[in-house]
Amino acid sequence: MDIRSRVALRIRTIRKSRGLTQEDLAEMIDRSVDAVSNMERGTSLASYDTLERLAAGLNLPVAAFFENAEPGSPHRTEMMERMIDAARTLDDEMLCKAASIVEVLSGRK
């Protein structure tokens, strides 16, 4: 998956996991709904200014949009993004419990 596709998938997945519409996100970052749609489909790559607005609005570091994607299908990548985004909201104790649960499910414990 190329960088444009990874960024697009991350924006869409995080927006959806937070219950935001494209209209909500567009308003949050002072961009048009068409601009958000184009970013989410990967037809245009967001400018750095727009990525900064996205990061601030979604309470993420800008680097989160560029982290290495998990190999596999787009569906697998989306599920990984959902897990990572949800994990960012947990306090240390809950994150430790979540990590233990994932490890049990993976057969590592």
Q: What percent of the residues sit in helical stretches (DSSP H or I)?
A: 55-70%
Q: What is the CA-based Rg, rounded? A: 15 Å
**Could you name the CATH topology?**
434 Repressor (Amino-terminal Domain)
Count the strands?
Answer: 0
CATH class annotation: Mainly Alpha
Number of helices: 6
Low-confidence stretches: none
Main beta-sheet strand count, sense and barrel state: none
Order of helices and strands: HHHHHH
- Terminal CA distance: 31 Å
Mean pLDDT, as a whole number? Answer: 88
Kindly estimate the percentage of residues that lie in beta strands according to DSSP: under 5%
Give a structural overview.
The protein is mainly alpha-helical. The protein has a single domain (3-106), classed as lambda repressor-like DNA-binding domains (434 Repressor (Amino-terminal Domain)). Helix content is 67%, strand content 0%. The protein has helices spanning 3-17, 22-29, 33-41, 48-58, 74-88, 92-106. Helix 1 (3-17) crosses helix 5 (74-88). It starts with a helix and ends with a helix. The mean pLDDT is 88.
